[in-house]
Amino acid sequence: MTSSTSSPSVVTWLGYGGLIPFVVLALANVFEPTYAITWTRALLGYGAVILSFVGALHWGFAMAHPQLQDRAHHALYIWSVVPSLLGWVALLMVPKAGATLLIAGLLAHYRQDLRLSRVVSLPGWYLPMRLRLTVLACLCLAALFAA
């Protein structure tokens, strides 16, 4: 990892700003149950989109590191599409099962980020930020179990 522990301000704003739909929809689901089906679908849909987005990061890492061996490149490219597939399947499931799959996918992707950090140099801020974003997104999805 590189030494910079402070993320660029645009990354900070976009990263944490991306939590707003998670938080708003989770709170709406708990405190405005009249539209629970709508809030739930929106929350699961947003979770699937975000899971797909974080998966694509590994495609970018594979392209940005041509020095990696073919096996490492192939693993990054293959993994990068798995979150999209998990998100799509989650949308086909009943809400609580879909939320569980999205949570599992987000946690698995963070684990893959940890593994990636052993192979390529990542900015010092990347893993701490990804952990915070992952935990908060997972907590918002878990709110579906309280609703």
* Whole-angstrom Rg: 16 Å
Low-confidence stretches: none
Helical content band: over 70%
Total DSSP E strands: 0
Structural class: mainly alpha
- Calculate the terminal CA-CA distance, rounded to whole Å: 40 Å
Domain count, please report it: 1
If you average the pLDDT, what whole number results? 93
Individual helix count:
6
Q: Element order, helices and strands? A: HHHHHH
| Form type | globular
Q: How many strands, what sense, and barrel or not for the largest sheet?
A: none
What report would you give on this structure?
- Helix content is 77%, strand content 0%.
- The chain contains six helices and no strands.
- With 147 residues, it is mostly helical.
- The chain has one domain (9-145).
- It is globular and about 55 Å long.
- α2 runs parallel beside α6 (126-142), α3 (36-64) runs antiparallel to α4 (70-92) and α3 (36-64) packs parallel to α5 (95-117).
Which key terms come to mind for this protein?
147 residues, mainly alpha
Write the layout of secondary structure elements.
Layout lengths: L8 H9 L2 H12 L4 H29 L5 H23 L2 H23 L8 H17 L5
Helix pairs in contact: 2-3, 2-6, 3-4, 3-5, 4-5, 5-6
